[in-house]
Amino acid sequence: MSRPQCSRCLRPLTHCLCPLIPSLDSRTRVLLLQHPSEVNHALNTARLAALGLMNAHLVVGEVFEDLPALLNVPGYRARLLFPAEDAQPLQAYTPSDEPLLLVVPDGTWRKARKLLHLNPLLAALPRVTLAEGAVSRYRLRKAPGPGALSTVEAIVQALQALETPTSFEPLLRPFEALIEGQIAAMGDEVFQKNHGPG
């Protein structure tokens, strides 16, 4: 028998994160393209980001038939947040800059690359990247490499780079509560054994 679930954050009602989810405005529009395997993931950080940003849109799928329409948002320049040798580091807007439509694939690195492979229009977008050296707060899994962040962390870092001095840190509150809840559920001993410094 499944536990009653919050229809907004999709967490069990006893662990609803909605009171922690902010409602932040941003000059940047964020388009999250989520691989279907992430939808029921316990730490669905793309959903948290979409709920906490007024100018964000979450679409779930593998092949996005309506991608041309999703990318053609008047007044925005579409950029893919994904590493590449020619990716441009994100920099703060100048007053005259047209804001970005920041396209963020959500999934494991393998699944995110698959989304690009299945959607050539997505793969063809100019790419942007985050500053090097970011450290994830996601203490429940080993990062695949330096600078590997969860989706919500990457979005926060991107928006802070683009829209400084505005702070998007409140977006991380439900994410951190989620992690604390997972650690509490597994118990400190299990957490230290599996995820502690080692």
How would you describe this protein?
The protein is built from seven helices and six strands. By secondary structure, it is an alpha/beta fold. The radius of gyration is 17 Å and the shape is globular. A six-stranded parallel beta sheet has the order 2-1-5-3-6-4. The mean pLDDT is 87. It has a single domain, classed as Alpha/beta knot (3-Layer(aba) Sandwich), CATH 3.40.1280. Helix 1 (45-52) packs parallel to helix 5 (151-162). The protein has helices at residues 45-52, 67-71, 109-118, 120-123, 151-162, 172-186, 188-195, and strands spanning 29-34, 56-60, 77-81, 88-89, 100-106, 127-129. Residues 2-187 form the DTW domain. Pfam families: DTW. It comes from Pseudomonas spelaei.
Question: What's this entry about, in short?
Answer:
Its EC number is 2.5.1.25. 31% of the residues lie in helices and 14% in strands.
State which percent range the strand residues make up. Answer: 5-15%
Low-confidence sequence ranges: none
Q: Overall pLDDT, averaged?
A: 87
How many helical elements? 7
Helix content: 25-40%
Give the oligomeric state of the chains in this entry, treating copies of one chain as homo and distinct chains as hetero. Answer: single chain
> How would a textbook summarize the main sheet?
6 strands, parallel
Spatial order of the strands forming the largest sheet: 2-1-5-3-6-4
Order of helices and strands: EHEHEEEHHEHHH
CATH level 1 class label = Alpha Beta
CATH architecture descriptor: 3-Layer(aba) Sandwich
Distance from first to last alpha carbon: 38 Å
Q: How would you classify the helix and strand content by structural class?
A: alpha/beta
Counted up, domains total 1
